[in-house]
Amino acid sequence: MSKNMMQGLTGRQKAAILLITLGPEVSAQIFKHLRDDEIEQLTLEIANVRKVDSNDRENILSEFHQICLAQEYISQGGISYAKDILEKALGEAKAQDVINRLTATLQVRPFDFARKAEPTQILNFIQNENSQTIALVLSYLQSEQSSQILSSLPQDKQADVARRIALMDSTSPEVISQVERVLEQKLSATVTQDYTNAGGIDSIVQILNGVDRGTERTILDALEIQDPELAEEIKKRMFVFEDIVNIDNRSIQRIIRDIENADLQLALKVASEEVREAIFRNMSKRMAESFKEEMEFMGPVRLRDVEEAQTRIVATIRRLEESGEIIIARGGGDDIIV
User: Is there a contact between 309 and 266 (Cβ–Cβ < 8 Å)?
Assistant: First the structure.
């Protein structure tokens, strides 16, 4: 296949040829990390490939290898570092082409260098910035980093930063670039030229799930005053039904006593085997057998009914946690001592 023909292939077509080249065993492992719609699209492309000659395979494998190398160099030292090494190996034009394709397909995120830094180093730089700037930076960091930084901020600033992360939608590249340049001048080129989404409720939930309990309560108490609806939405998402597997046995036994059997049977109807095991091992043998029999006789159930039952159970768990009757262990000082 000529260079011109290679350039005419879409990324999906190249991916299909790559998977064919790698063989079924490796491709099956790759499929485990893809979404259902991506698997369907790639399967269709693979089915449409009639023949792959050796030149095609070599060209696509070479391109894939170059992109992998570029990604590894970026993770080691950033875009500029990767570009310098690739230029020495491939020449300036080819190196720029690889970098352009990589940033376009893999979406190298702003503040990449900061995700490799110690939280204390980042805190020292941003703690005196305004809440919106802090919220922007924390939105792009790993949730573990953001949790530590948020816990270390003054209490009067924690809730404001948390609220701004939760309400953050999209930020213009100019603003991101300005903040990033101050934090690390050499990586300002990682910002793409369209609006970049960061923050949001899911982002702040991940962060709050990693902070210590005192910080969490301070932030949620303040948010309940500032924005009760937002505080309630965050609370709902901070613990999901499947997280029961992370609760200690004594607490699960306490939860079982406070929830309706009908709700628990509905919730377990579509629960994972891991969740079922966590529940059944904290019941008496007779109760567990009775539950299993009743669940078998339930027949088909509506997903909406299951979700509503799980929501009621989660609400009970949150109530028991807030009253101190059970403990849900999370980061920073909530280790359980027996």
Answer: yes
Find all residues with CB under 8 Å of 44, minimum gap 6, and list them.
none
How far, rounded to the nearest angstrom, does the alpha carbon of residue 194 sit from its chain's CA centroid?
22
Mean of the pLDDT values across residues 56-61? 78
Q: Which of 75, 58, 85 is nearest to 109 (CA)?
A: 75
Q: What is the pLDDT of residues 204-243, one digit of tens each?
A: 877 776 676 667 778 888 888 888 888 888 877 777 788 8
List, for residues 12-38, the tens digit of each pLDDT value: 778 788 878 777 777 777 777 777 667
Distances (CA, A) of 242 to 77, 266, 271, 289, 295: 38, 14, 8, 21, 18
Dig out the tokens for 72 from the structure.
């590894």
Q: In sequence order, which residues have a C-beta less than 8 Å from that of residue 204 and are 6 or more positions away?
A: 162, 165, 166, 234
How far are the Cα atoms of 133, 146, 182, 292 from residue 190, in angstroms, in the given order? 18, 21, 14, 54
- For residue 85, give Cα distances in angstroms to 65, 92, 97, 237, 287: 14, 10, 14, 44, 65
- End-to-end alpha carbon distance in the chain: 67
